[in-house]
Amino acid sequence: MRNAARHSPSIAVLALIALLCGAELAFAQSGSAGGSIGNDEKSLSGSREPPRSNETEKSGRRSKPEADESGPTARKDGGGGNNFDGAWVVHSRGTTCQGTSSNAVVVTSGKIIGQTARGTVSPDGRVYATTNDSGITVITTGRLSGRSGGGTFRQSDGCTGTWTASKQ
């Protein structure tokens, strides 16, 4: 206990010195005028020199899109063509087993994502999803149209049922 009391003033002085030096270093850095990383051009507006030999002559602006770029109507991700993207609430009801449930999922670019559900929605609205919850696998199929949809499900424990969905 005596050693701790004897060394505490030394520790306090060292901490104060470190604090003061750290603040001074931070102050020196805040006033530096070195420019940003990767900014090789430090000229004033209107005084640009000709480009270096390793720079391209092409302007940074383009008047038309390049031929290899796809427009907003082209979709390469395979889904969402009928705007199924968004939040959906799915209500399920067992037909060979008892019980109902409601779950929220999100569709993004034709992909279904829920708490335990993963699947796809094709551009024409066909749904295929799987869920694995508490060791039971559920396969869900059906169709979306506009802001609603429906279909069937089959669980690995033998339960089958129907589902309906509405876009939020």
From TrEMBL:
Organism domain of life: Bacteria
Region annotation Disordered: where it falls in the sequence: 31-87, 140-168
Biased composition annotated in UniProt, kind: Polar residues: 153-168
Basic and acidic residues composition bias: residue spans: 39-67
Signal sequence residues: 1-28
Protein keywords: Signal
Name of the protein: Uncharacterized protein
Species, as recorded: Bradyrhizobium lablabi
